[in-house]
Amino acid sequence: MRHRTSILERLLAILAATLFGTIVLTGSPALAQFDFGITGNDDPGFNDSRDRVGTEMLLSRNSAAPGGDVVVAVILDMEAGWHVWPGPGSAPDDLAEFDGAIRTTIAIPSAEVAPFTIHDGFSTWPEIHGVLADLGDGPIKYAVYEGRVAILVPVTVDEDAAPGTYDLTIDVGFQTCDDRNCLAPAEVSLTRSLEISTSGGGGATNEDDPAFAAFDPAIFAAIRGGAVAADIIEFDVFGLAFSVDAAGTGGFLLLLLVAAVGGLLLNLTPCVLPVIPLKIMGLSAVAENRRRCFTLGVSMSVGVIFFWMVLGGMIAGLKSFQSISELFQYPIFTISVGAIIVVMAIGMAGFFTIQLPARFYAVQTSHDTLGGSFVFGIMTAILSTPCTAPLMGAAAAWATTQSPGTVLTVFGSIGTGMAIPYLVLSAFPDLVKKMPRTGKASEVVKQVMGLLLLAAGIYFVGSGISGLTVVPGEPPSRLYWWFVTAAALASGVWLLVQTWRIADRWPPRIVFTIVGGFITSLSIWVGLTMTAKGPIDWIYYTPERFATAVAEDKVVVLDFTAEWCLNCKTLEATVLQTEGVVAALDRPDVVPMKIDLTGDNPDGRAKLIEAARRTIPLLVVYGRDGAEIWKSDAYTPSQVLDAIAEAGPEGP
């Protein structure tokens, strides 16, 4: 019998529509609160880095002919006794680099459309100086910029540029410090007008300004000769650090490979694991027909890649949508996803059958249509967004600063990596043939998987409701975890009971008794862990509480988390709650502080931006003077302990 559109497919389609509706809404002014761009504070009394640094932009010439060259000088003029941290590159061997430094950066706004090219990768950076400062580790000579310095950026005018006057804009970010304290970082947008005329003459010139003295005109010759600027991306995964130079074809292809591996690892995160058995069972049902099995696997894989391409397109095109996990900061979206998963889980477990006209059939999990598999791929990709896999985060963060084409290519690679397991399973159906497809064993497997999927659905509904009710500066409600535990516990107990009821041979009885016991024990442990206060006496962040901790000369360990962020909870349980880290956080001179971004928390988001990040999880350790010492989104207990020790020895 040929099935028509199923209830499951309709539910998945509703989920996809909810996704795209939410993304579209992110572009509206009402939801512009999620624009995480650093803009600084326009209050003249606000003590940020701009109070001690004058900023200016000069052009070597204000008029140029088509095909001509112009040098831009981004000038930072620091007050005496103040400095900013250097830009890219290593410091001289005789100078130290402050681990918590927020480096000086320049960036070209993505909306910049003009008949010239800004070669920021070929910029000439100022000379590095040494300044003696005590930032918590005693007097050390640090590498800094001081006085009046200029970042020199080459610009070439297009050969076919039409005459006229065009704005040239460069954003500069920096953090100002003296010999004991650092101010809040700032970002300033600088704009100058460049006249393009066929004569190329006329207009003021600033070439005699000392700011341009360090520029080497040979840079323009190198650019025209096809030279490619270095574009280094740093990766740090649980202490394993390496870098990739994305410049050039070879470097960019290597980056795409890293992004694909990150996408592949997404399937191992707690966000995606609950739905993988669902697809395995769907493929198992058609495993005897190799062509059909492969076609459905390809359809699902295309759905996964399609979602990531759409997400990349939204990030490239909407300023108010800049974070992969941002969808789950909308509680209504989180609740919608959870509600649909709950209905799917109930249907999968076979707890009820919906009586509908003949053109419909009971809710079930077989994805034996191309459309159903495609939409299921979209759903699987949606569920991955609350989690960030190792390697993927850094690649995606770099991509968001590049051109739209680069964003789409990198995000397409992430999607391709995530889709690989489903392609492999569908191409080699023997891998799923052993999954029971009929009989009592098959029904028990579906019921157990359905209950586990129900737990996942309750989790999303609960975290969404928690986001609607949470008060910034206070812990969110975790009552829903008991309902998650109940569903997961039921799956383990049901597997134990049914194993001894229907299994005739001892080997399967032993295996599935162990599995059922593990699920039961894990469910109880998760429920107790997630609802307990825990061994760490967290203080929930407010700017005033953070300022008080700094004023009291204490080290602050700041954990950025959210109820919908399963990676955050995993790191807290497996790293922060280990015996050594708990002991370090319990020191009287250390303040463990948590920023929960479950709901609307503008102060928390501002602090995340101050840490120069857009995604969570993130752990930041601040020294006694409030300066950032270390941060990471994938860390080990030893890294946390080393950072706390670096922030300062235990006080008397």
Oligomer: single chain
Number of helices: 17
Mean pLDDT: 78
Anisotropy-based shape = globular
Structural class: alpha+beta
Number of DSSP strand runs: 19
Helix content: 40-55%
What does it look like?
There is one protein chain. This protein folds into 4 domains: 7-36 and 244-469, no CATH class; 49-229, Immunoglobulin-like, CATH 2.60.40; 476-528; 539-647, Glutaredoxin, CATH 3.40.30.10. Helices cover 42% and strands 17% of the residues. The protein has helices at 7-25, 218-224, 248-265, 276-285, 290-317, 331-349, 370-384, 392-399, 404-427, 439-469, 480-502, 506-531, 543-551, 566-576, 579-585, 602-610, 637-647; strands at residues 53-59, 63-64, 69-78, 83-84, 105-107, 116-118, 129-134, 139-146, 148-157, 164-174, 176-177, 186-196, 232-237, 240-245, 539-540, 555-561, 590-596, 618-622, 628-632. It is globular, with a radius of gyration of 28 Å. The protein starts with 6 loop residues before the first helix and ends in a 5-residue tail after the last helix. Mean pLDDT is 78; it is low at 1-46 and 354-366.
